[in-house]
Write a structure and sequence with these properties.
Order of helices and strands: EEHEHEEHEHEHEHHEHEHE
Helix content: 25-40%
Largest sheet: 8 strands, mixed
Shape: globular
Amino acid sequence: MPVERSLRVADAAVIVHPDADAASRDVADRVIRIVADAVAARGKAVLGLATGATPEKVYDLLADRVARGAFSFRDVTTYNLDEYYPIQPLDPLSYRHYMHSRLFGRVDLAPNRAHVLDGTVPEFAAAEHAAWFDRWIEADGGLDLQLLGIGRTGHVGFNEPSDLPPAEFADLPTRLVDLHPTTRADAVREFGSPEAVIPRALTMGVRQILAARAIVMLATGAKKAPIVAQALKGPITAAVPASLLRTVADKVVWVLDEAAAAELG
């Protein structure tokens, strides 16, 4: 029977589980430990959260712990990575709706501590809104944990591939971006057609992601194997945004299932 295994790829810590459920349980347990440690140290925990199919099981597990009285979001503040732009929060395809249905509405997290970038701000105010989002995170003392997934382009949040030098890319703030064609193609399954996909988004900047005190990258499934291997074994480059996690490798753990780890060797 397959078992969990640990390895190092370059300087990166990688935990490989036999399946996606086991990987999700690992990540849920890490979230709970980090929250407990942060609350004990400074009376609160600040989490950066991700959306998409990959973390859904993690959110189910956390909500179940809260329902059983084994965990609480009472002392937690959250900041989500991204949101389509423009979009209404009640739109079923918005990430605000995603988070409310999968986590916020199922746990004891105060509404004024559940922050998602606002897809309704006027475009002339989008840059100011993004800058305020960064200020809120900094005023909260920074992120204790950033939970990440990885897109097929290697994006983290919606920080898409770039030709910027890595140091400049690593300093990008929260901002309005154009989505990569591959990202837009992957979104067709939710939006229904290529024409319906919203082509822009607000995304937390690379700067805030890399500044988190702990970072957990969760990747599952065979479709993620090529980009996981590229991010961990290829050059550190803004052309593969997730590769920049290796610049802060001492605080990052990659949690994979066997399918996503298939090309690591």
